[in-house]
Amino acid sequence: MTTSIALLGEYTPTFPPHASTNAAIEHAKAALGLEIGYDWISTADINLSLFERYAGIWIAPGSPYNNMDKTLAAIRHARENNIPCFGTCGGFQHMIIEYARNVLGFKDAQHAEYDPYASNLFISQLVCSLAGRAMQLTFEPGSRAAAIYGVTAATEQYYCNFGINPDYIETLKQGPIHITGADAEGDIRVIEWPDHRFFIGTLFVPQARSTPQQPHPLVSAFLTAVLNHNS
User: Fold this and answer.
1) DSSP for 175-226, written as a single string
2) Which helix (H) or strand (E) element contains residue 72?
3) For site-directed labelling of 65, which of 35, 90, 116, 162 has its Cα 20 to 30 A away?
């Protein structure tokens, strides 16, 4: 296995979150002196041999994906096999769906972009779009996110029109997933899988705030986890 990352999504060079994903990886690589490759993989082309070639996966923004089921299968495999997995924006949303289906047992858990009239709609359209907005959030003390940031509050950029359906927040909390970041209204913005090498999802797009002078700490932590996984 080479030390490389699979970026799962439908790559569009002109889509700002995709351009910033590439840039953020380069920022972190340069700052840390890491040799890590990365390839964009369409969700239609996902299969489990992916994990023979890549040491970590980043579920990228830009849904709906070409193949939701293959994306969820990749997330599940990474979660169950301690493989570094990072999900941002749409990636976070699909991590929630995978969790709802395969951990909580809601086999019909759905995302409003794919089926807005589903009976168990865990991801719904936001009443107020967060696209283009920068908002403050807080992290749970002692969480992996707080440790990575080194603080318990941050301002982050969003690019999404969908988020967790408020009707399912209490249901999500009943399982083992850790909810470790929230905005001022208490809406879920960061999730972590306990005792995992790296399994973090953010509704915000951390890569949008990365710069060569200040690589984003989440991206740096993800790349470090990928490198350690392959060592």
Assistant:
1) SS-EEEEEETT--EEEEE-TT-SSEEEESS-GGGG--SSS--HHHHHHHHHH
2) helix 68-80
3) 35
* Predicted pLDDT at 59: 98
Averaged over 213-226, what is the pLDDT?
97
Domain extent for 48: 4-229
Angle between helices 16-32 and 217-229 (to 10 degrees): 60
pLDDT-derived band of residue 132, with 50, 70 and 90 as boundaries? confident
Q: How far apart are the C-alpha atoms of 10 and 65, rounded to whole Å?
A: 7
Residue 128, H or E segment: none
Q: What's the CATH number where 208 sits?
A: 3.40.50.880
Q: How much of the chain, in percent, has pLDDT values that exceed 70?
A: 97
**What's the distance, Cα to Cα, between the start and end of the chain in Å?**
10
- Residue 1 has a pLDDT of 40
The token pair that represents 195 in the structure block: 């005792």
Q: Is 61's pLDDT higher than 70?
A: yes
Total number of domains in the chain: 1
